[in-house]
Automatic annotation (TrEMBL):
Entry GO terms, CC: cytosol
GO terms for biological process, alphabetical: xylulose metabolic process
Protein's organism: Liparis tanakae
Lineage: Eukaryota, Metazoa, Chordata, Craniata, Vertebrata
UniProt cross-references to InterPro entries, sorted A to Z: ATPase_NBD, FGGY_C
PANTHER family, A to Z: SUGAR KINASE, XYLULOSE KINASE
Keywords: Kinase, Transferase
Protein name: Xylulose kinase
Length: 117
């Protein structure tokens, strides 16, 4: 399946997993970036891929150091596009994102349960 998960709509959650109708622009932007990378990590792990090796980012966003730092932190892996080390994960980020990934998986399943035909 090309689009994973097969969920439809905009789904916003607060710190207590409560559904939200909106977020502040700053929080929404950060949540969007983190959500995309958490989704990639979750589904890569479910497919049996190992994380914590390195990430190769390509495309337009690969020139944005802030986005690359979030990517590096979520995967707990250095980002090395074109064999050039760009970022390494923050030491404290692994524990944060390991826990966040569990929450993300739970919330994704919740969304899928609501949107499955």
């Amino acid at each position: 399946m090309e689009i994973t998960p097969p969920a439809v709509g905009v789904h916003l959650f607060g710190p207590a997993d409560n559904e939200m109708s909106s977020l502040s622009p700053q929080v929404e932007v950060r949540a969007l970036v983190e959500g995309q990378f958490l989704s990639r990590r979750l589904h890569a792990e479910r497919l049996g891929y190992s994380i914590r090796t390195r990430v190769l980012a390509t495309g337009g966003a690969s020139s944005n150091k802030d986005i690359l730092q979030v990517l590096s932190d979520v995967f707990n892996a250095p980002n090395a596009p074109e064999a050039q080390l760009v970022t390494t994960p923050h030491a404290a980020a692994q524990q944060v994102y390991d826990q966040m990934l569990k929450r993300y998986a739970r919330l994704e399943e919740r969304v899928l349960q609501k949107t499955r035909p």
